[in-house]
Design a protein that fits this description.
The protein is an alpha/beta fold and about 270 residues long. The chain has 2 domains: about 130 residues, 3-Layer(aba) Sandwich (Rossmann fold); about 120 residues, Rossmann fold (3-Layer(aba) Sandwich). It contains 7 helices and 13 strands.
């Protein structure tokens, strides 16, 4: 049995979508036969001083870019990596990225940013697309962050009387700044169970829509920055996109199959 240690990152935010990303990393490791792992705070990776550890570096980076790069005790597993701010790529981090190639990126904008600095990078898509398909759809209907307060929804007057049989969910309503990781992940797992079984989901949240795509759950995704948000670059083919609204169907698209092939070929040496 390997004595290597593995880790997944979590983010102490109010957005439960970050915890869905953590569950996606756990799911990825399990598919590679790795059942034991440690939780590491995404914003504090530079302070890690434990044993050498392989860490899945997926998701959005980061609220505190000055805390990057991670400790030299961390061996990164680059898959589904997203850079939120181009300033995060600077003299120190460029050398770090070049020393740890290749960088598997969640979106094409991150690939392009890294390649501009001669960093070996490629597109993987999002790890939330690696959840297993679920064919039994006997669950409810959900409106996930489609109110104007969340800031992502195109301007419109939504007649809520048309959605009386929908359950309303807000990804940032859990207020989990001080909640321990296990409790956060339990709440996120319950949401994924609901989306997995749902007959229909309408959402402005990428990390509601992408898991639904993986599950084969019918989903309508709406986002007012869909056409120009870098987070969506490379993912529109998976989501079968239009300009402001688009529909997930239960049929897997060619783009979805390509991304799953990348995940399946990604090997971890135990």
């Amino acid at each position: 049995m390997s004595d290597k240690k593995y880790g997944v990152i979590f983010a102490p935010t109010t957005n439960i979508g970050d915890d869905i990303q953590t569950l996606a990393a756990i799911n990825f490791l399990k598919k590679k036969g790795i059942l034991e792992y440690t939780y590491l705070n995404r914003e504090e990776l530079h302070n890690y001083d434990g044993d050498e550890i392989y860490v899945v570096m997926n998701g959005w980076f980061m609220h505190r870019p000055n805390n990057f790069p991670p400790s030299n005790k961390i061996i990164p597993i680059w898959i589904s990596f997203n850079i939120s701010n181009a300033k995060m790529v600077n003299g120190q981090t460029i050398d770090y990225f070049k020393s740890q190639p290749p960088i598997g990126c969640r979106d094409l904008a991150t690939v392009e940013l890294l390649r501009k600095h001669d960093i070996d990078a490629y597109f993987t898509g999002c790890l939330t697309l690696f959840f297993d398909e679920h064919t039994r759809k006997g669950g409810g209907k959900y409106l996930v962050d489609v109110n104007g307060e969340c800031g992502y929804v195109p301007t419109m007057n939504l007649n809520m009387q048309l959605f009386e049989d929908f359950k309303v969910i807000e990804h940032e309503a859990f207020k989990m700044w001080d909640t321990d990781v296990d409790k956060r992940l339990k709440l996120a797992a319950k949401l994924l169970d609901d989306y997995r079984e749902a007959s229909l989901v309408i959402t402005s949240r990428l990390h509601c829509a992408l898991p639904c795509r993986a599950f084969g759950t019918s989903c309508v995704f709406m986002h007012k920055r869909y056409s120009n948000d870098n987070r969506f670059t490379g993912l529109k083919g998976v989501l079968n996109g239009g300009s402001d609204y688009h529909y997930n169907t239960n049929a897997k698209s060619g783009e979805m199959e390509k991304i799953l092939q990348v995940f399946n070929k990604y090997t971890i040496e135990n």
